[in-house]
Design a protein that fits this description.
Blueprint lengths: L1 E9 L10 H25 L7 H14 L1 E2 L9 H4 L7 H22 L1 H21 L5 E2 L3 H14 L4 E10 L2 E11 H14 L6 H21 L7 H6 L1
Antiparallel strand pairs: 1-4, 2-3, 4-5
Helix pairs in contact: 1-2, 1-4, 4-5, 4-6, 5-6, 5-8, 6-7, 6-8, 7-8
């Protein structure tokens, strides 16, 4: 199996050697939720009866209540955060994993885990609020808004960064990648915005475009004005 994936962020100044705990926890939460939801739905759809019926009802209720609705009668404040934990498709999950693994972890290494957690807690409701303001319509699920905002934040902090792309492969027990080319970070942002708009219904293409661009600009603004992380002891020792 071979797939084209981003593999690293390249900048003129090496990124600090910090742990990326926040990103790993977030990815684990999203993947576990996605896998568990699909397992319960699969069991119910094929009447395998491996799991209790009450579990399917509970998962269905969680997915429904955690999604972010533009309809005021269905909207609840916690949906501004919870919507990002629910993934609507495999490709959406795959894109989020790729962006978080490369861009998200690079940002966390740059600003530190505490600042990263605070940034995510801020960007999640802001991107969802923009979705409601632009009246994109329908239901917002998944981390597209968060990914767009983090890409913007990365561009604000690393304006001259490039993203290394490669052919990732998985052959029985061999896993790795072959470097192919690099893209400027702004180019990757444009491509992701195009992907988000292309996968949206044609009727809301314009409002989706405005929302996506607004999320990116919001991230850029936070990246430009946000506090700078202090050097860790290991970073200071390497200077």
């Amino acid at each position: 199996m071979v797939v084209l994936v981003p593999v690293a962020v390249l900048d003129s100044t090496p990124l600090p050697d910090r742990s990326t705990t926040v990103m790993w926890i977030w990815l684990a939460l999203v993947c576990v939720m996605f896998g568990f939801e699909r397992l319960v739905v699969f069991d119910h759809a094929f009447a395998l009866q491996l799991l209790p019926t009450q579990l399917f009802a509970g998962v269905t209720f969680v997915v429904a209540s955690w999604s972010c609705y533009s309809d005021g009668a269905l909207f609840a404040p916690w949906q501004l955060w919870s919507h990002a934990v629910i993934q609507s498709s495999w490709w959406q999950l795959g894109c989020e994993i790729a962006i978080m693994m490369v861009i998200g972890r690079a940002v966390e290494r740059l600003i530190g885990s505490l600042a990263m957690a605070m940034a995510m807690l801020t960007l999640l409701p802001m991107s969802a609020t923009l979705y409601l303001i632009f009246d994109v319509g329908g239901v917002l699920v998944g981390g597209q808004g968060l990914c767009l905002s983090l890409l913007g934040l990365a561009a604000g902090r690393l304006p001259h960064a490039q993203v290394q792309w490669g052919a990732g492969y998985w052959v029985i027990v061999a896993v790795g990648y072959v470097p192919l080319f690099v893209l400027a970070l702004p180019t990757m942002i444009v491509l992701y915005v195009i992907l988000v708009v292309w996968t949206a219904p044609a009727a809301v293409a314009m409002t989706t475009t405005l929302w996506a661009v607004a999320c990116v600009l919001m991230g850029v603004l936070i990246g430009l004005t946000g506090p700078r992380a202090t050097k860790s002891a290991s970073d200071a020792a390497n200077v």
